[in-house]
C-alpha cells in the first residue's frame, strides 16, 4: 500500500511523521512524504513571530542544514527530509510541494497510485480535486484523514492547545478526522487525549502527546489496509468551536495566567535529543548552535526554577 503524508514545516509534525514512517515501513508499505511550507506573518504579534521562529525556523533553517552537512544520516535518531530520502532510498519517496492542489501534482499521485493520505499540520487548504483523488471507487468514502491537534468539534482552528489551556481544560489531545473542503469539519475517526500540565508550555504539552498522535495515524493505516472500514461519527454542530490565531487580548490573558507558548531551552533540548544521539559530538555541536542562536531571549520569570 502506498501512503501519502502531507507534512507541515513545524517540529511537532516532523516528529510525528518520523515516528509514523518507521511503522509504515515495518508494515511493508511505501510512504510518500510531501513536505509543505508556511511563511511567517510579518504583521503577527511579537509572541507569534517568536513562536514561528522556535517552532519552524530553527528546524528548517538550522537543524536540517546541520544534519544534512554530515557525511551520512545519524542512525537511531529522527531524520531530516533529505536524511529520510538517503537512509530509506528506494523504500520511501520524499518531495517538497508548493501547492498540493496543483493539477500536475494530483496527476502524479494518480500515476503512482497513491490512494491513502494523511495531513499532519499541513496548512494548505485541500480542494475537491485532491480530495476526490483519494476516493478509491465510485460511492466509496475517501481514505484521506487529517491529524488535528485539538479535540473536535470543540477546538477547531489553530493553536488549540493554547485555547484549551486558556479555558482551564484538564485535558487536550489530537483528533483524526476525514478531510473535506471545510477546515477541521470532517467526520471523526478517532480521538486521543491526555492531561494538560500547566507547569509546561503550550508547545511542550502538544509534543508530549506525539506518541499518542502517531498511534492514531498508524491505527488508521492498518484500517486502510483492511479496506478502511472505520466507524466514523459526524461532528456535533452544537459543540463546534472555531479559533483563529491568538490576538493581543488572548496573548495578554496567557501572560496573566502564567502560561508560556514556549520555553526556549525546552525547544533546544527536544531538537537535540530527537535529531542527534545522546552524548554524541553532534549533540554538543547542535546544542551549541541552537543555544547561540537563542541566547538573547531570557526565560520568563515564572518559568525559572
Automatic annotation (TrEMBL):
Organism name: Kitasatospora camelliae
Superkingdom of the source species: Bacteria
Ranges of residues in domain Formyl transferase N-terminal: 144-201
Protein name: Formyltransferase family protein
Pfam families linked: Formyl_trans_N
Amino acid at each position: 500500500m502506498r501512503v501519502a503524508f502531507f507534512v507541515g514545516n513545524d517540529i511537532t509534525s516532523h516528529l510525528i511523521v518520523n515516528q509514523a514512517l518507521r511503522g509504515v515501513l515495518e508494515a511493508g508499505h511505501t510512504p510518500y512524504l510531501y513536505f509543505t511550507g508556511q511563511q511567517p506573518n510579518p504583521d503577527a504579534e511579537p509572541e507569534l513571530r517568536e513562536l514561528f521562529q522556535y517552532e519552524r525556523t530553527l528546524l528548517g533553517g538550522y537543524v536540517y542544514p546541520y544534519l544534512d552537512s554530515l557525511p551520512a544520516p545519524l542512525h537511531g535518531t529522527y531524520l531530516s527530509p533529505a536524511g529520510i530520502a538517503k537512509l530509506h532510498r528506494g523504500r520511501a519517496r520524499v518531495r517538497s510541494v508548493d501547492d498540493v492542489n496543483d493539477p500536475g501534482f494530483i496527476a502524479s499521485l494518480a500515476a503512482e497510485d497513491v490512494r491513502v493520505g494523511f495531513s499532519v499540520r499541513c496548512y494548505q487548504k485541500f480542494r475537491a480535486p485532491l480530495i476526490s483523488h483519494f476516493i478509491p471507487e465510485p460511492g466509496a468514502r475517501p481514505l484521506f484523514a487529517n491529524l488535528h491537534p485539538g479535540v473536535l468539534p470543540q477546538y477547531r482552528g489553530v493553536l488549540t492547545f493554547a485555547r484549551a489551556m486558556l479555558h482551564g481544560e484538564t485535558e487536550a489531545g489530537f483528533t483524526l478526522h476525514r478531510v473535506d473542503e471545510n477546515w477541521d469539519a470532517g467526520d471523526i475517526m478517532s480521538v486521543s487525549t491526555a492531561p494538560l500540565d500547566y507547569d509546561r508550555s503550550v508547545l511542550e504539552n502538544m509534543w508530549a502527546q506525539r506518541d499518542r498522535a502517531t498511534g492514531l495515524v498508524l491505527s488508521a493505516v492498518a484500517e486502510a489496509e483492511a479496506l478502511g472500514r472505520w466507524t466514523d461519527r459526524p461532528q456535533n454542530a452544537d459543540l463546534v468551536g472555531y479559533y483563529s490565531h491568538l490576538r493581543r487580548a488572548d496573548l495578554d490573558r496567557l501572560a496573566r495566567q502564567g502560561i508560556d507558548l514556549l520555553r526556549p531551552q525546552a525547544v533546544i533540548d527536544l531538537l537535540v535529543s530527537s535529531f542527534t544521539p545522546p552524548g554524541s559530538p553532534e549533540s554538543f555541536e547542535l546544542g551549541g548552535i541552537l543555544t547561540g542562536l537563542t541566547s538573547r531571549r531570557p526565560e520568563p520569570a515564572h518559568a525559572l526554577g
